[in-house]
Design brief:
This protein is an alpha+beta fold. It folds into 3 domains: about 1-115, Alpha-Beta Plaits, CATH 3.30.70; about 155-250, Chitinase A, domain 3, CATH 3.10.50; about 260-440, Trigger factor, C-terminal domain (Trigger factor, domain 2), CATH 1.10.3120. The protein has 12 helices and 11 strands. The strands form 3 sheets. Strands 6, 7, 8, 9 and 10 form a 5-stranded antiparallel beta sheet that branches. Strand 7 and strand 8 form a beta hairpin. The longest helix is centred in the middle third of the chain and has 33 residues, at about 265-300. The chain is elongated and about 100 Å long. The two termini are about 45 Å apart. The model has no long low-confidence stretch (mean pLDDT about 90). GO terms for molecular function: peptidyl-prolyl cis-trans isomerase activity; protein folding chaperone; ribosome binding.
Length: about 450
């Protein structure tokens, strides 16, 4: 095998590799003989099929198989001998000698970007602040109140009074566009919570003030992004008749409520809420600490990010941005930006992510941080638990899709590296309010 370097520009590398035609032919012939040993053909004993017939039937497929193996082995040898670590899968182009039976030497080119030289900063010199918040009685009481509100019942309003915010109005309605009733726009005995969400903007609000027995025509405009395209953005009228009015009866926060929810008593509910909120606070605390750590590490990434990796990361980000833009989900600060500005902003984010990913990977590699099989199994089980009744299908999916398993391995590895760095860094605990803890900075990592 002969290797000639053709490109060395920054992180870009290029080589031309030549493999003697005799070596290719030898491997091809050996592989054809292997095929012939197992081939059954009328008129020939096993293993005695002539090479000419084997060549005719399998020559092209065997040639492709041999070339793939030779190119893979040669590329791996090239990388190992020169100590090169490609950032992404090398690009290989066949130049000559790839046809079956060719007398020319096999010649192909290999181009790739290498990983940059990364100097790991002094991790013990990092100073971090871990925000902490205690679960207090007020937080638990607030959660209990929200639970009770979801358990409330509604009783019929007997007195003659107008419908008000918070009531539930039972109505019949007929929707019309340009005076003609439209499909799906009519219904009877529909409960409408006044002040709640779920109806076209302005629908519930115009029922307020009506009394039982009243009839009224209201006008609304369907949102531009309404699910039914034939109605989106159109003005419609609704003939409404208020048939019944109900008011909420708040559930009492006591042992009876707890038992209704399946608990022994109220104290057990309070303990569960306290535990769950405490776990949420711990997760928020970790997210804030991780963000601060990544921000400080980003300041120390003074190496070049492989352009190909940045391009790939940016493409993923931009696909999401395009989807969000079509669905009207862009962040407020992005809505007024032109496309060039948006692209520039998110390309910086892509570069930051790539650099941080490379730095964390290098820290993990140097310090022998790995993901165990037990951790992968635990992650797969956790994923399966998200789909009750379909656990076996989830297990089979991961067993057949190594890339999906890699998708689980990545976050586990990153978290283990983060934990390793936090152990080395100087971390100061700081007590804050739950509101301060929840004030997450803009996520760009």
């Amino acid at each position: 095998m002969q290797v000639t370097e053709t490109l060395s520009d920054g992180l870009k590398r290029g080589f031309t590799v030549t493999v003697p035609a005799a070596e290719i032919e030898s491997k091809r012939t050996a592989r054809l003989k292997e095929v012939g040993q197992s081939m059954k053909l009328p008129g020939f004993r096993p293993g005695k099929v002539p090479m000419s017939i084997l060549q005719q039937r399998f020559g092209e497929s065997v040639q492709g198989e041999v070339l793939e193996q030779v190119v893979s082995d040669a590329t791996r040898t090239l990388l190992d001998e020169r100590g090169l670590r490609p950032a992404m899968q090398p690009r290989v182009d066949l130049v000559s000698g790839s046809e079956p039976g060719s007398k020319e030497d096999l010649k192909f080119t290999v181009e790739f970007e290498v990983l940059p030289e990364i100097t790991i900063p002094d991790l013990s010199g990092l100073s971090l602040v871990r925000l902490k918040s205690e679960v207090n009685a007020e937080t638990v009481d607030k959660a209990l109140t929200e639970i009770a509100s979801r358990q409330r019942e509604f009783e019929k309003v007997e007195e003659d009074r107008p419908a008000a915010n918070g009531d539930v109005a039972v109505v019949d309605f007929v929707g019309k566009i340009d005076g003609t009733a439209f499909e799906g726009g009519s219904a009877d005995d529909v409960s409408v919570e006044l002040g709640g969400a779920g109806f076209i903007p302005g629908f519930a609000e115009q029922i307020e003030g009506m009394k039982v027995g009243d009839e009224k025509v209201i006008t609304v405009t369907f949102p531009a992004d309404y699910g039914a395209e034939h109605l989106a953005g159109k003005e419609a009228t609704f003939d409404i008749k208020l048939k019944e009015l109900k008011r909420p009866v708040e559930a009492k926060i006591d042992d009876e409520l707890a038992k209704k929810l399946g608990f022994d008593g109220l104290e057990q509910v309070r303990e569960l809420i306290s535990k769950q909120v405490g776990q949420e606070y711990e997760q928020l605390s970790r997210l804030r600490l991780k963000r601060e750590l990544l921000d400080k590490l980003a300041e120390k990434t003074d190496f070049e990010a492989p352009p190909g990796m940045v391009d790939a990361e940016f493409a993923q980000i931009w696909n999401r941005i395009e989807e969000d833009r079509k669905a009207g989900r862009l962040d407020e600060e992005d809505k007024d930006k032109d496309e060039d500005t948006l692209r520039a902003d998110y390309r910086k984010i892509a570069e930051r992510r790539v650099k941080l990913g490379l730095l964390l990977a290098e820290i993990g590699r140097v310090n022998n941080i790995t993901v165990t099989q037990e951790e992968i199994v635990h992650a797969v089980r956790a994923e399966a638990a998200r789909y009750p009744g379909q656990e076996q299908a989830v297990f089979e999916y991961f067993s057949k899709n190594p890339q999906a398993v890699d998708g689980l391995r990545g976050p586990i590895f990153e978290n283990k590296v983060i934990d390793y760095i936090v152990e080395l860094a100087k971390v100061e605990d700081k007590d804050v309010t739950p509101e301060e803890l929840a004030e997450m900075p803009e996520a760009d990592v």
